[in-house]
Amino acid sequence: MAVKVSTKWLGNMRFESTNPSGHNLFIDAGEENGGQGEGYRPKALMLSGLAGCSGLDVAALIKKMKLNVEDFNIEIEANLTDEHPKYYDKVAMHFHFFGDDLNEKKLQRAVDLSIEKYCGVMEMFRQFSELKIETHFHKK
Predict the structure, then answer these.
(1) CA-based torsion, 76, 81, 85, 90: positive or negative
(2) Which Gene3D superfamilies match (predicted)?
(3) Which residues of the chain have pLDDT under 50?
C-alpha cells in the first residue's frame, strides 16, 4: 500500500505537510536553528508517531478486551546522538494506566501485543534504537 504525503515550504524554516487522513500539520525549526518555533520538530514528531501508533493499538485492545481504564498516557524519553546525522539511539517508553479497577495482566498483554506484533513504527525504531518499555499502574 502506497502512502503519499506532500510537504510545502512556507518560507524561512517552516513547512506545511499533508497527511492521508486529510489533516495538515506544520513543521518548523526552533529559534536556535533559524525558525520561529511555530510547528513540530521533525525528530520529536517521530516520537509522537511512535507513541500514537502504540497508543492506538493499546486503545483498540482495551476496547476489545472490555477493560476498565479511566485514563492512560505514554511518556517517551529519547537520547539524541551528538554526531550528524543525529538520531535517537536510545528510546524509553513509559505506559501509564490509571483507574481503580485495572486488570494489570490484560493491560500488560495489550502493551506487549503492540510492541511485539502490531506497531509498525515500533518496528522501524528497532532498526536504529535501543528500546526500553515500562508499564506503570496507578490507582486513582
Answers:
(1) negative
(2) 2.20.25.10, 3.30.300.20
(3) none
Bridge partners of residue 80, in order along the sequence: 88
pLDDT in the model for residue 1: 86
- Confirm if 47 and 76 have CB atoms less than 8 A apart: yes
54 and 122 share one domain: yes
For 34, 83, 95, 135, the CA distances from 105, given in Å and listed in that order, are 48, 41, 14, 11
Question: Cell 476489545 maps to which residue?
Answer: 64
Rg over CA atoms, the chain: 17
For 125, the 3-state DSSP assignment is helix
At residue 54, the pLDDT reads 98
Give residue 15's domain range: 1-40
The pair phi, psi for residue 57, each rounded to 5°, is -60, -50
Domain count, the chain: 2
Which grid cell is 130? 535501543
Q: SS3 of 33, please? A: helix
